[in-house]
């Protein structure tokens, strides 16, 4: 089941943004790799979903709409904006970092520091620790 906020009801831009974000989670669901049960999404998981949704908006509505949504996230959903920014930084340093790490462990929500090391992806330890922690823990991080 995909749940969208009331903002998506009468706003096509919000509808596409939120639907793309939630659909991205279907590609790499938040499951505990050990128990096979649902778990809270990590910062990296939410960052990747936010990146995809911004890309969809940029493609369908243009750069100004994508920038408007990022500004809206900064003001109203800072945790998502932070997850987005941290994930963008990771990809800016190595645009194939996610692909490399997923070749070691395909479960985005179950990635560990050792998975990054095994994949040869170097990330500053403090940033990696934040990317791998539960999303709810970054409220007000930046």
What does this structure look like?
The chain has one domain (9-27, 40-136). Helix 1 (12-27) crosses helix 2 (43-61) and helix 3 (63-76) crosses helix 4. It is 62% helix and 0% strand. By secondary structure, the chain is an all-alpha fold.
In short:
By secondary structure, the protein is mainly α.
Helix-strand string: HHHHHHH
Mean pLDDT: 91
Give the overall shape.
globular
Number of domains: 1
What is the makeup of the main sheet?
A: none
Provide tags for this entry.
single chain; 142 residues; mainly alpha; 0% strand
Write the layout of secondary structure elements.
Layout: H1 12-27, H2 43-61, H3 63-76, H4 78-93, H5 97-104, H6 113-119, H7 125-132
Helix pairs in contact: 1-2, 2-3, 2-4, 3-4, 5-6
